[in-house]
Write a structure and sequence with these properties.
The protein is an alpha/beta fold. The chain is 42% helix and 21% strand. A hairpin with a 2-residue loop joins strand 5 and strand 6. It binds adenosine-5'-diphosphate and guanosine-5'-monophosphate (5GP).
């Protein structure tokens, strides 16, 4: 029986470890697909086009909005970020678990458009850890780090709007928590098409 896939929205302050956590679970969760976002921000050192982001100009981003190509989009610290719609629709129709990293504005748009999306808020153990992770990552200029730390207070207040939270203390523990949520979500009865299930059972009543 083919189950319909679903969307996982992962948010949390920049530097909380969203990308690190997703990379940790990919090898052990079959059928999990990352939705690569489009952004107008400049690539960080080491970031790869089409893997980390699709890096686009403001004009190209405007065009994607105009033609309805984005499922959601938002401005964050002076750049725009958005989710290509067709990729998400296709992957869900094929029964995949799609995971996306979006800010609190994007998560709120997704909740309205796709009420069965599962939302998770990732927290660093402490604010000092967040600061240290952003500084040690060493890929943002000082001003961008300050902006992101400032933004984290506002973001934390929105944690209450999410279905789950994960504290990213030890990476392996956090990865276990994420795998547990994904497994439990696949077991929800609403993922089953009852008509299809009954069809499969027809004529098999006798032992
Ligand atoms: P985000 O995607 O949320 O912006 P990253 O995944 O880039 O965050 O992680 C930010 C930094 O924190 C990286 O340098 C990463 O190696 C580090 N990091 C992530 N998770 C942990 C953890 N559990 N313990 C220690 N450092 C971590
Ligand atoms: P960064 O510049 O650190 O990669 O990302 C900055 C913020 O943009 C993060 O909070 C991240 O979750 C968010 N973000 C990344 N991709 C998207 C997206 O497609 N849509 C929205 N709304 N936010 C995104």
């Amino acid at each position: 029986m083919q189950l319909k896939g679903f969307l996982i929205v992962l948010s949390g302050p920049s530097g909380a470890g969203k990308n690190t956590l997703m990379n940790a679970v990919f090898p052990t969760v079959p059928n999990l697909q990352y939705s690569v976002s489009v952004t107008t921000r400049a690539p960080r050192e080491g970031e790869i086009e089409g893997v980390d982001y699709f890096f686009r100009s403001d004009e190209e981003f405007d065009e994607m909005i105009r033609t309805g190509g984005l499922l959601e989009w938002a401005e964050f610290c002076g750049s725009r970020y958005g989710t290509p719609k067709s990729f998400v629709d296709d992957a869900i129709a094929q029964g995949r678990t799609v995971i996306m990293d979006v800010d609190i504005q994007g998560a709120s748009q997704i909740r309205r458009k796709m009420p069965d999306a599962v939302s998770i808020f990732l927290l660093p153990p402490t604010w000092d850890d967040l600061k240290k992770r952003l500084v040690d990552r060493g890929k943002d200029p000082q001003e961008a780090i300050s902006q992101r730390l400032q933004k984290s207070f506002e973001e934390m207040r929105h944690m209450i709007d999410y279905d789950y939270f994960i504290i990213n203390d030890q990476l392996e523990l956090a990865a276990d928590r994420l795998r547990t949520i994904i497994n439990a979500e696949w077991c929800r009865v609403q993922r089953v098409n009852l008509d299809e299930l009954q069809e499969l059972w027809k004529g098999r009543k006798q032992l």
